[in-house]
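queue> pop job 88
queue> type: inverse folding (structure -> sequence)
queue> payload:
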């Protein structure tokens, strides 16, 4: 069953909506995007074009410190870029951070 906040908003639907927003933006920028079904992996989106590989975690409003540490510790290939995109309520664009 999906979790609801005190305001009655379905958090899972909100997160999925933001993942779709990110996917659409990346596709418009020319990337091929694979979205993890049910967000069961560490990365929500795996994106690539002819010269880049991007691993993106999409969050709504905040990212817990423990989750941020997991992203940081993930051993990606040297040519991959790890990113955290946080969509805040009522803000049109995501706050995008490269994780090193």
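queue> result:
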């Amino acid at each position: 069953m999906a979790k609801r906040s005190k305001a009655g908003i379905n958090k899972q639907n909100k997160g999925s909506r933001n993942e779709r927003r990110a996917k659409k933006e990346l596709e418009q920028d020319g990337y091929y995007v694979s979205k993890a079904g049910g967000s069961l992996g560490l990365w929500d989106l795996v994106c690539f074009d002819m010269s880049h590989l991007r691993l993106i975690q999409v969050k709504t409003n905040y990212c817990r410190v423990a989750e941020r540490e997991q992203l940081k510790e993930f051993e990606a290939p040297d040519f991959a870029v790890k990113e955290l995109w946080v969509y805040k309520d009522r803000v049109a664009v995501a706050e995008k951070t490269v994780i090193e």
